[in-house]
């Protein structure tokens, strides 16, 4: 089991790494990247819930709770972006003209 400062270090390192990876993706690829990785968001959410379930100290519980919130927001956001992207490609039948 990961203890105290090591867990915080891993959390911060993962956040920094994720930010750096995503910030280097060209703008045109953000939406396809998001829609193609929605299943990963669900896996991250399940992992965060498992980590929260094994938390023993208040600090671990707080970090686990924040991880669950962020993972859930990430999963929902991914599906919202995918839905909006798919709406752009629907043909408009019965429109003006």
TrEMBL record:
Q: Name one GO cellular component term.
A: plasma membrane
Relate the protein's function as given in its record. Answer: The transhydrogenation between NADH and NADP is coupled to respiration and ATP hydrolysis and functions as a proton pump across the membrane.
Extract the PANTHER family matched here. NAD(P) TRANSHYDROGENASE, PROTON-TRANSLOCATING NAD(P)(+) TRANSHYDROGENASE
Q: Which reaction does it catalyse?
A: NAD(+) + NADPH + H(+)(in) = NADH + NADP(+) + H(+)(out)
Domain spans labelled NAD(P) transhydrogenase alpha subunit C-terminal: 8-90
Listed GO MF terms: NADP binding; proton-translocating NAD(P)+ transhydrogenase activity
User: Could you tell me the Gene Ontology terms of the biological process aspect for this record?
Assistant: NADPH regeneration
UniProt source species = Aestuariirhabdus litorea
- Alphabetical keyword list: Cell inner membrane, Cell membrane, Membrane, NAD, NADP, Translocase, Transmembrane, Transmembrane helix
Location of this chain's protein in the cell: Cell inner membrane
Q: Read off the InterPro entries from this record.
A: NADP_transhyd_a_C
Q: What Pfam families does the annotation carry?
A: PNTB_4TM
Say yes or no: keyword Cell membrane present: yes
Q: What is this protein called?
A: proton-translocating NAD(P)(+) transhydrogenase
**Name of the top EC class for this enzyme:** translocase
According to its record, how does it sit in the membrane?
A: Multi-pass membrane protein
Give the enzyme's EC designation: 7.1.1.1
Lineage, top-rank taxon, reads Bacteria
**Transmembrane portions of the chain:** 6-27, 39-56, 62-81
């Amino acid at each position: 089991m990961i203890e105290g400062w090591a867990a915080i270090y891993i959390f911060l390192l993962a956040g920094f790494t994720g930010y750096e990876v995503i910030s280097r993706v060209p703008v045109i690829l953000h939406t396809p990247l998001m829609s193609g990785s929605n299943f990963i968001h669900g896996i991250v959410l399940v992992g965060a819930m498992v980590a929260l379930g094994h938390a023993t100290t208040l600090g671990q519980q707080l970090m686990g709770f924040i991880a669950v919130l962020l993972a859930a927001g990430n999963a929902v956001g991914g599906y919202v972006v995918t839905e909006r992207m798919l709406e752009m490609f629907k043909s408009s039948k019965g429109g003006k003209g």
